[in-house]
Amino acid sequence: MGARIWALMGEGQKLAEICATMLEEYEVERAQLEADVLRLATELAERGLVTPAQ
User: Fold this and answer.
1) Do 42 and 15 touch, CB atoms closer than 8 A?
2) How many CB atoms lie under 10 A from the CB of residue 12?
3) How far from 29 is each of 22, 23, 34, 36, 46, CA to CA, in Å?
4) H-assigned helices in the chain
């Protein structure tokens, strides 16, 4: 799932859009998905690999 999140980020999708897309593609609980997406985004930002949108 991390690779899919990364790909959607690369397309310029916002985190809410990523969650909506992935809820359609995967059988997963919304709360768990949102937590996973946020955790990965935070980790990538801390490593300087992504920059939060302004």
Assistant:
1) no
2) 8
3) 11, 8, 9, 11, 26
4) 2-10, 15-25, 30-46
1-44 tens-digit pLDDT: 899 999 999 999 999 999 999 999 999 999 999 999 999 999 99
Band of pLDDT at residue 53, cut at 50, 70 and 90: confident
Residue pair 26/33 in contact by the 8 Å Cβ criterion: yes
Structure tokens at 1: 């799932």
How far apart are alpha carbons 29 and 48 in whole angstroms?
29
Q: What is the DSSP letter of 26?
A: S
Rg of the Cα atoms in the chain = 10
